[in-house]
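A protein record in our archive is deliberately plain, so that people and models can read it alike. The record that follows is passed on verbatim for readers who wish to inspect the format.
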Amino acid sequence: MINVKKYSISDIERLIGVKAHTIRAWEVRYNLVPPKRTATNIRYYDDEDLKMLLNIVALNENGYKISRIAKLSKEQIADLVKQLNTEWGNETVQLLNLSNAALRYDENDFSNILTGCIEEMGLIKTMDVVLFPFMKRVGMLWQSGTIDPSQEHFASNLIRDRIIVEIDKIEKPEKKDALRFILFLPEAEMHETGLLFARYLLKRCGHETLYLGSEIPYLDIQKLIKSYKPDYTFIVLTSLNLGKDINKIIGRVMDHVDVPLLVAGSLISEFDILVKDKLIPLKNVCDMVDFLEEL
């Protein structure tokens, strides 16, 4: 027997980025995607309802009024969304499309969206306006239990693989004054996407990188700095559960490094970072690009 996923209206709100009262208004005024009910009369939505709502939001975000959408059949709505799908520079549509593909574990669809966006906008803009917002949303949904951990891992691993492909494509420019960077994740941080993107930017600028990934003990970093002699160390902080401890984590890293520390990731823009010598916070993609290109 197939286990049907059931979403509450608060789940739907988080998944599609539309307030619950707006979804209810669509239902009352236009009979758009009325919820189903359990045997005990509890309202819920299933995967087909979610897909339909994602399509409605995609059209609405692109100028279609809800009153007009309500007059269309499911097939007509799907056809219009297919036309939008090829507008790779449309960040809102592609963000919704990635969410839809991740929920369905559709690797081909997810990969095609990544390819289309990168070919249209380049990796830097795609990361800034599509992938980082998408990963932030997925992280929040995973934290709240709205999506399964497997869906979050499915999406993040496909993005990770694609960034590695883009890194391999770079013909590293000759740079006589190239600097050395050690890239790693501090303990309790497992998301490598931002760190891999930093590696992409550094290689693109012609700098040398020693990429360590996650789960590297601080004492090993300390030893490695003595032998590799980097100009900078670089970490990324994105896990939501680290937010309250962010300055403690940064402080602990700095206790084990004696070179300037670059810190990027979504948490840097969301929490107040204590000012310290040799600490350089990079709050967004523009900050990362500007800083690294000016070195």
The chain is about 55% helix and 10% strand.
